[in-house]
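Both lines are retained for reference:
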Amino acid sequence: MPQTNPSLQIAIIGAGFSGMMTAVQLMRKATSPLTLYLINDKYEFGKGPAYSTTHPKHILNVPAAKMTAYPDQPNHFLDWAHRQEAYRDMDKEVLGKVFLPRRDFGRYLSEVWAEALAGKRDDTTVHTISDKAVDITTAVGQNNIELASGQTIAADYVILATGNEPPRNLPVSDLGLYDDPNYIGDPWNNKAAENLDPDRDILIIGNGLTMVDIVIGIMDTDFRGVIHTLSPDGLAILPHRYGYITYGRLAEEIKAPYKLNELYSLINKHIKTFKKSGLSPEPVIDSLRPLTQKIWQGLSLEDKQRFMKYLMPHWNKIRHRMPGHMYDYLMQQQIAGRMIIHRGRLLNMTQTAHGLSAEILETNTDTPIKLEVSRIINCIGPNTYVSQSLNPLLQKLVSKGMLQADPLRIGMQVTDHWTLVGADSQEIPSLYTIGGNLRGLLWETTAVPELRGQAEKLAGEILSKAAKV
């Protein structure tokens, strides 16, 4: 009897944007039998925390023209948006510059997935599994994934698309505070604006884009109190300006080998030129985006450490901006006295008879102050140190020596092909990762423009490797 071609089995743990789009690309590129397992246990399939929101004022931080899911179809999302009833009468060029609601992008991703399933080969099988992966064991030619339900999935290759971790817990003298329902340790769990006392103040620790989402969600309730926010730099976040000016001079002058001091001097020269014309430096930094990963990989470990210690706050301030009208909204809340920005650091939090108390030390003062609030929300950003992960699977892999942090402690130690490197410094060739887990290797690796390219590249890498086995 003729032998049947065995199916290649690939398991993807995590089905946010990165996990789903890797599966889509695998379906598009497969030329032989393929079985996919997508294991997802938390957010809505394909959307992750970013695109599961239904709030109309939670909007994208990238304009519609730059938000395609496919690297080879740059207008795919824009074309989709222009077909929707809400936008079909808008000039398409103008629509491309609009920051659309994230829930719209979530609907778009659902349609991308449905179309991928409808167009897959007949010998491709897809299983979506609502469960939590808790362990992986590897043997010659096979990986066994243990699920919380007790089920085991066997796969030739496994992809960790686990996404962002919740923030690390804030410092407290009483660990029992972490169990208080009014301490929100995970700002993406959709509970931050629920069951609020409308007349009592709130404290948000952190002043990034997640804080903006939380403020919008709270202000759209019957909340009448004051929102306090705290971070070392105050409200450093900037708005998008200049309509995405394209600037090419800096990129033309950057040459390898890359050294931080030389890069800093060159970038600073171009920023000064911009400032002489009355412009702020965002277009200069934006012009580096096509080169950022290449530059990062070319820097020495010492230079990377120096960048993170001295320059990272300035980089983040310029790179991670918000739409202009959202920035204006925050300014209006401050003018109205409904939002107070504190520049400083948290010393301690305690439970009180009426809520929570936060002791903070503002910059340039010697005396701590106390804020009596009904709720404290942790928005300091995702924990990136995998050795302190709260994910049971990652904890298990770390304990078994199958996973370790990269030298900067901002992601996973991987090879240039994104396979895991264990504690013994040996590659685990059947275990891959994608997305934010690659921060140590690639630095910028969390936005759609990077993730869609990673999904396509990783799908091609695995299929090519499997074909040679």
The CA atoms of residues 192 and 214 lie 7 Å apart. The chain is about 35% helix and 20% strand. The first strand starts at residue 8 and ends at 13.
